[in-house]
Specification:
The complex is a heterodimer of chains A (457) and B (130). With 457 residues, chain A is an alpha/beta fold. Chain A has three domains: 8-64, no CATH class; 80-344, Type I PLP-dependent aspartate aminotransferase-like (Major domain) (Aspartate Aminotransferase, domain 2, 3-Layer(aba) Sandwich), CATH 3.40.640; 357-456, Aspartate Aminotransferase, domain 1 (Alpha-Beta Complex), CATH 3.90.1150.10. Chain A is 34% helix and 14% strand. In chain A, strand 11 and strand 12 (389-394) form a beta hairpin. Chain B has 130 residues and is α+β, with helices and mostly antiparallel strands. Chain B has one domain (9-109): Beta Barrel (OB fold (Dihydrolipoamide Acetyltransferase, E2P)), CATH 2.40.50.100. Chain B has four helices and nine strands; from the N terminus they run E-E-E-H-E-E-E-E-E-H-E-H-H. Chain B has helices spanning 31-37, 91-94, 110-113, 119-129, and strands at residues 9-10, 15-19, 25-29, 40-44, 51-52, 57-63, 67-71, 76-81, 102-106. In chain B, strand 1 (9-10) and strand 2 form a beta hairpin. The longest helix of chain B has 11 residues, at 119-129. Chain B is globular. Classes of the chains: A alpha/beta (457), B alpha+beta (130).
């Protein structure tokens, strides 16, 4: 099917009808000095055969390393059925269809997705996905500004323990809309945000507080105390959560006395493979009372004129095709394909399967930490529990160690020096259910060799 | 045929304004407006204490087919948003002139300065708008 259905004759007829000489006339509002004539640095097109070969070569160059990197994207086992079903022709599109109600099957999948995410988070309503976890957090901050009408300051408190990339995305996408993101310090002994550190904001006009659980260091924040502190001061709580962890941890709807107001997260752990940074997808949930301030598409279940069950896009008056400039966001489509994979993943795993995955990930990460800290010169950075990743501190610079490990086919984790220089030679490591005892031993012995070799040299 | 009570003032954006005895004004949308919108499913009203300028979007009416901003006909401070409408948006459809959206204390001189029409002029305006 051609993506542009108009023939040259159609185009000529349409231009004649509006009195335009050519298509260029339609863009004359854009000053000539802002127009791009050609895209420097973008190579010529390749045909399918050539691009297939190029991508195969690039993929091969990655090898098949043993990865202990988490930091926001997590390697989990994906049952073969997930992508076998997701890539069926009926689902194989990134978009919600334009004539949405003609595609009842697609809408039902989205409805099931929303239901599963709502159940996982405990929240009352979920939308039909966001671009990724980082943009979901930034949209949540914008939503909090709209929904928290008592606050006028547009100030959002963001702990330093929130994923640094999420913070960067929020600043980049929402600062120009007047939002101010204020970073909160963390305790360097425990790696969590201390409620005492919030005291200086008592009596100030603050719109929202972000809390990530588990936090970027893999540590568990005192979500109850943080949530109650915020709610006592009329401050919205934005939860950023790992969906796998919710099979074990308290859902954001139960944080503190009232629960979080908005809960968002990265959906990648639910059936989406690690892939050079994406495409991934985000999710967003809230209380029903704020649903009209929520961005994105929402599918509802309804009855047709004959009383039969059907699915429909609902609450569309929030969206840009109706509300124009005052829409709740300009997200008009979503990560439909990935959301479909997540729905199938969750339905195959079920609550018990997800809980087993989460528990196994936690157990493997504990084994990993125990093994690696047996290597002289390696210690844990923070005391206290974590979910499935943690920060280690080495007695020497991290990057050369990671490089030596990579030469042995091991991706040893993420060096944190660039993000948290105050932590010294810090390394964020992760193990999920995909890692075996043999994998962990291979990492330990390789690390021991690498550090021993470095000492000998 | 939509009703246009003679004792109210009107705007070109289809709000009505009623002067109350205490010097404040009540503001709503006209019968013509509710008819054009269709069945309302949600009404968002401003909080008391909000200061609005004439022409500023200060409330939202959402129907099954559209969402529209409601503009402040005159400058002033909101003294109340109608709490009834959160649970009963359809009250605007039932009687647009009793289902007020907000009460406003006009800024000094704002009432006189506001570009408001009489009922007769609003009826002519509606007829001309077709």
């Amino acid at each position: 099917m051609a993506f542009i259905p108009h023939t040259p004759e159609d185009v000529t007829a349409m231009l004649a009808a509006i009195g335009a000489k050519g298509i260029e006339d339609l863009f004359d509002e854009i000053p000539a000095n802002l127009r791009v004539k050609s895209l420097a640095g973008i190579p010529e097109e390749l045909n399918e055969m050539a691009i297939g070969r190029l991508m195969t070569e690039r993929a091969r160059a990655d090898g098949a390393p043993l990865s202990f990197i988490g930091a926001g994207a997590y390697e989990h086992h994906i049952p073969a059925a997930v992508w076998a079903v997701t890539t069926r022709g009926e689902f194989y599109s990134a978009y919600t269809p334009y004539q949405a109600e003609a595609s009842q099957g697609t809408l039902q999948v989205i409805y099931e997705f929303q239901s599963m995410i709502a159940r996982l988070t405990g929240m009352q309503v979920a939308n039909a996905s966001m671009y990724d976890g980082a943009s979901a957090m930034s949209e949540a901050a914008l939503m909090a500004v709209r929904a928290n009408r008592k606050s006028k300051s547009l100030t959002v408190l963001v702990p330093a323990t929130v994923h640094p990339h999420y913070q960067q995305v929020a600043v980049a996408s929402a600062s120009n809309m007047g939002l101010k993101f204020v970073e909160l310090p963390y305790c360097t002994e425990t790696g969590v945000t201390l409620v005492q550190s919030l005291k200086k904001y008592d009596g100030q006009d603050v719109t929202a507080l972000v809390v990530q659980q588990p936090n970027f260091f893999g540590r568990l924040e005192d979500v109850d105390a943080l949530t109650d502190w915020a709610h006592a001061r009329g401050i919205f709580v934005i939860a950023v959560v790992n969906p796998t962890s919710l099979a074990l941890l308290k859902p954001p709807a139960q944080w503190g006395t009232r629960g979080a107001d908005i809960a968002v997260g990265e959906g990648q752990p639910l059936g989406v493979p690690l892939s050079s940074g994406g495409p991934y997808f985000g999710f967003m949930t809230t209380r029903m009372e704020y649903v009209r301030q929520m961005p994105g598409r929402i599918v509802g279940r309804t009855l047709d004129v004959n009383g039969r069950e059907g699915f429909t896009l609902t609450l569309q008056a929030r969206e840009q095709h109706i509300r124009r400039a005052r829409a709740t966001s300009n997200i008009c489509t979503n990560q439909g394909l990935l959301m479909t994979a997540a729905t199938i993943y969750l339905s195959l795993m079920g609550p018990q399967g997800l809980a087993r995955t989460a528990a196994a990930s936690h157990a493997r990460s504990r084994e990993l930490i125990a093994a690696l800290t047996r290597v002289p010169g390696v210690r844990v950075a923070f005391s206290g529990p974590c979910f499935h990743e943690t920060v280690l501190v080495l007695d020497r610079p991290v990057v050369p160690v990671l490089k030596a490990l990579a030469e042995r086919g091991i991706l040893g984790g993420l060096a944190l020096g660039g993000y948290f220089p105050e932590l010294g030679n810090a390394l964020l490591v992760c193990a999920t259910e995909t890692k075996t005892a043999a994998d962990i031993e291979r990492y330990r012995s390789s690390l021991s060799d690498v550090m021993h070799a470095a000492r000998a040299a | 045929m939509s009703t246009v009570p003679a004792d109210l003032k009107y705007t070109k954006s289809h709000e009505w304004v009623k002067s109350l005895a205490d010097g404040t004004v009540e503001i709503g949308i006209t019968d013509h407006a509710q008819h054009a919108l269709g069945d309302l499913v949600f009404v968002e009203v401003p909080d008391a204490g909000r200061v609005v300028k004439a022409g500023e979007a200060c409330a939202v009416v959402e129907s099954v087919k559209a969402a529209s901003d409601v503009y402040a006909p005159l400058s002033g401070e909101v003294t109340a948003g109608n709490p009834q409408l959160a649970n009963e948006p359809e009250a605007v459809n039932t009687d647009a002139y009793s289902a007020w959206l907000m009460r406003l204390r006009p800024a000094p001189g704002a009432l006189a300065a506001a570009a408001l029409m009489s009922a007769a002029d609003y009826e002519k305006f509606l007829a001309a708008e077709g």
